[in-house]
Write a structure and sequence with these properties.
alpha/beta; 7-stranded mixed beta sheet; 6 helices; globular
């Protein structure tokens, strides 16, 4: 399967000279499976450019699955600008967290309404099917892909995903934290032996201590999780909007590789093919 990053930030898009190398869009990752099924993980601002490319490459009909880790704004803010959702011929299954008293479709619809936008949710004329899932569930996508779902430790809840396709395994764990000095067992199970673990790396070590209740991780917790789960490669992800390219490349990545050498920075446009043909993945 092919994995491509379209948005790698948290909180809010941050375009500018200090973020141009890594990217300033919020969370969105696309997976193309061996049977040519498109899986989109999160609908942050990065989904806009992904949608434009999908339309160019698929002039007929687009069928796919959109996995929503949770509905904090930086993970759904791009959905109203996802061009394929406006085409009647297209079909998407939107999968997200089942919550008490709140329907996923209603949450998505509430941001696509006046006075925030000049159109509403009903304007999205694609065939949209919204499916709610809970911790421990498994869903089948296409003919050759299985997705496992697990709860993560984040205020309001968040889902992690393990995608298994044609011998390759991708685990996506954004917006999560670990109890002090430990690694969450749910993440170890979800990521065990994965080719690629995409893990929240929002905080510096100092900020992780100051904002312990925000439900995010530092790069240190990410590498500890990668080691505990024995993954082939770790992709740091969901960076703070204040993290510059220089900080990410010359400080965060350098320190992370001292502990887990097979670490990379997720960056917009990065394309990876799974499974890796060696134990180091794309790390040089």
């Amino acid at each position: 399967m092919l994995v491509r990053f379209w948005g790698v930030r948290g909180t809010i898009p941050v375009p500018g000279p200090d973020t141009i190398a890594i990217g300033g869009n919020t969370s969105c990752v696309a997976v193309l499976t061996s049977d040519q099924h498109i899986i989109i993980i999160d609908a942050g601002s990065g989904i806009r450019r992904l949608g434009q490319e999908l339309v160019q490459e698929n002039p007929g009909r687009i069928v796919g699955t959109i996995l929503i880790s949770h509905t904090h704004w930086d993970h759904i803010q791009g959905f109203p600008y996802f061009t394929p959702a406006f085409e009647r011929n297209n079909r998407f299954v939107v999968v997200g967290q089942k919550r008490v008293g709140q329907r996923l479709e209603a949450i998505l619809a509430r941001q696509i309404v006046e006075p925030y936008l000049p159109f509403d949710y009903k304007t999205l004329s694609a065939d949209l099917h919204v499916k709610e899932v809970s911790d421990g569930e498994m869903i089948v996508v296409g003919d050759e892909t299985v997705v496992h779902v697990a709860n993560l430790n984040h205020p309001g809840g968040c889902l992690g995903f393990r995608i298994e396709n044609d011998g390759g395994v991708l685990t996506y764990c954004t917006d999560t934290t670990h109890a002090e000095g430990t690694v969450e067992e749910s993440i170890v199970k979800l990521a065990q032996g994965a080719d690629l673990l995409i893990h929240d790396s929002f905080f510096s070590l100092a900020d992780r201590q100051e904002f312990a209740g925000w439900g995010h991780s530092s790069w240190l917790e990410a590498v500890r999780a990668a080691r505990a789960a024995d993954v082939k490669c770790l992709a740091l992800f969901h960076y703070s909007p204040d993290a510059s390219d220089e900080y990410l490349e010359q400080e965060m990545l350098v320190k992370a590789r001292e502990i887990f050498p097979n670490t990379i920075l997720s960056r917009e446009g990065l394309l990876l093919e799974l499974p890796f043909d060696n134990n180091r993945g794309p790390v040089k």
